[in-house]
Design a protein that fits this description.
CATH class of the domain at 3-181: Alpha Beta
Strand content: 5-15%
CATH architecture of the domain at 3-181: Alpha-Beta Barrel
CATH superfamily of the domain at 3-181: NADP-dependent oxidoreductase domain
Structural class: alpha/beta
Length: about 325
Amino acid sequence: MRYTTLGRTGLEVSRLCLGCMNFGSEQPWMMNDRAASVDLIHEALDAGINFLDTANVYSTGESEEIVGEAIDSTNRDELVLATKVYGDMREGPNGGGLSRKHVIDQCEASLDRLGVEYVDLYQLHRWDETTPIEETLDALDHLIESGHVRYVGASTMTAYRLTKALYASDVEDYGRFVCIQPEYSAVARHEEENMLRVAEGEGLGVIPWSPLAGGFLTGKYERDSGPAEGTRGAASESVRSYFTDENWAVLDAIRSVAAEEDATPAQVALAWLLDRDVVTAPIIGPKSSTQLRDDLGALDVSLSEEQRSEIASQKRPRYPKP
């Protein structure tokens, strides 16, 4: 395993982050097997992954519970545990959002589900249109001061909003975001024209979600046939949205490079991301030991500048996402 630091912090994280959204039973394409989920987390930890990312809304807390069960006997000092807040956790007033009440209440609930005294990284899952960002940042600062949170970060938002939050933190002396979590892959490059510009200028770590575009970049789908039953592509319109001529061209380039390197398309797609200077650790989401080992193999793939350019030249980054 290789390690790096998260943004400008001294926090050491593995170059691959284990995404934990699959550990639950909310959707048919999730693992739907608690014991197997725990075993897969243990295998990732044994391989040297020390960075785990989950969220309170993943299967309405079930993912956090599974992660908590898996890390019960883990060396907490080495583990970097990340979760997120924003989504609705129940019906009724104050069930979601980024108010001071919801942020603090949900942090405490996440700690209970995870079975830990603190999380290393607490992230805003989305932007809250109805809550002043200063209120949210003040709540996050309280959690840092109370010892429940070590660092704070953000996920999907516009560059303007991210910059506004960073400015408010600087002016009011709140704990500052140390990283962002954008959608980013060889076929989802819109953030290059949005948040990634801010991240590069402000020294933020970048932990991309969906680095394999919901499985599209693994090469398991074919241009002339629909997704097979039981795959995420069959169940998810967001995955099928990748089925465009431009994206198939990207995948063709990735397959060509994979053949040259005796690697899989998934390994090449992850290696392409790992080679981006702004990227800290792509968030992988394996559902089996085979998929995990395949993802880990990306760390051994070294792409030439020509190969990286071949993949990148197939698509022009545009924001917002087409």
